[in-house]
Sequence to fold (467 residues):
Amino acid sequence: MNAGAFKLLFLAMMGAGIPVAIAMAGASLVYVMASGSTPPFVVIHRMIGGIDSFPLLAVPFFILAGNLMNVGGITTRIYNFSLALVGWAKGGLGHVNIIGSVIFAGMSGTAIADAAGLGTIEIKAMREHGYDAEFSVGVTAASATLGPIIPPSLPFVIYGMFANVSVGALFLAGLMPGLVMTVLMMLTVAYFAHKNGWGGDIDWQWDRVRKAFAELALVAGVPFALWAASEAGASMTIAVPVALAALLWADYRYKFNAVLPIMTPVLLIGGMTTGLFTATEGAIAACVWAIFLGVVWYRTLSWRMLVKASMETVETTSTVLFIVAAASIFGWMLTATRTTEMIAAWILTFADAPWKFLLLANALMLFVGCFLEPTAAITILVPILLPIVRQLGIDPVHFGLVMVLNLMIGLLHPPMGLVLFVLARVAKLSVERTTMAILPWLIPLLASLALVTFVPSISLWLPKALG
Fold:
């Protein structure tokens, strides 16, 4: 069997409806057995080697942290905080939807968890306040794409492993694009509110708004206080517990809604930036924090819920890691058959400038994202596109942001858009109506994609500034 037959076999298996992971592993095994040049056990060896990676340990722990936050009632606290913060503005619950997704993105790392967890609460509330189903579903779908952009992010962990770049740098690079997406989506909500004459959904109460902004100020003040203590020569082994104790006291004293959940991304980014822990160790810290909040502090997480979250984590992790394992042998076969080399040479014949390649890569990834789950798409595309990225001098961290954002937009489209199907089920709408509801929200998402793609400093400024 030659290289052409190997690629045709993979495409034929995909066309027959075989899951992508099985198609990758199956095509590789058939090629190895038919060629006779390599022992078949190499397939198993490569698959096991593909998941024998320390950074990949972050995957189950980030998934577990998100599940614990979901089942422990944290989503309700996030919704109430967002409602107090922006619910009084015109189109209030649309803004609440986006702000809630920004906060929940700092805990779950996946668009599906955001859509299924927080989205269920948001769509129900918006329908009860008179918003039409299409607008409710559209804003929820668009805001769910923030999940893997704002750290932590499972797609960034997968990309970082395959591209051999720092996961911490990818996490930092996602903050500014996430902010750009948030602003553009909130402007879209403001446009719809002005067009339809919508007002706020709760009355303006200064005490409530002041309390919400006090929560934000408290969260923002913790890292600055620790930085100031560090500059003054104070020991972090003393400063960190003191700051944490002060935070817990303030939450207990003033009955805040979401200070402690919002601290999750601050703890992760702060710990990785200061070298306190790696991304993998940060995922474990996020789980410990989620268990502390659910079991000890809020007492909303029962043992039954803990077991449920753990079993869901096992199910999701096994799916993700099987895709990674299958992609490892598939990527090795692509390299061995010189497929990646030939594709790179072909693309470079007419995409010899970075902007041309990025334009072409965006079109390819948007198309692929409509048919493949993000993890599978990353594992297939990175070995093919990354050599071209490096040859053209494009920063691989910047390209990682572009790839993940493309694939998140793909989650909103048929035939394989998982967020699309989740929200269709949550809102009890047909897939066709859900698809039409999402179409207007492609404008801010594609505008964000264009800015992130062709203005690399949006992604790279923060990682470079923090070293």
Q: What stands out?
A: The CA atoms of residues 122 and 128 lie 10 Å apart. The chain has two domains: 1-53+310-332, 55-309. The radius of gyration is 23 Å. The longest helix spans residues 303-336.
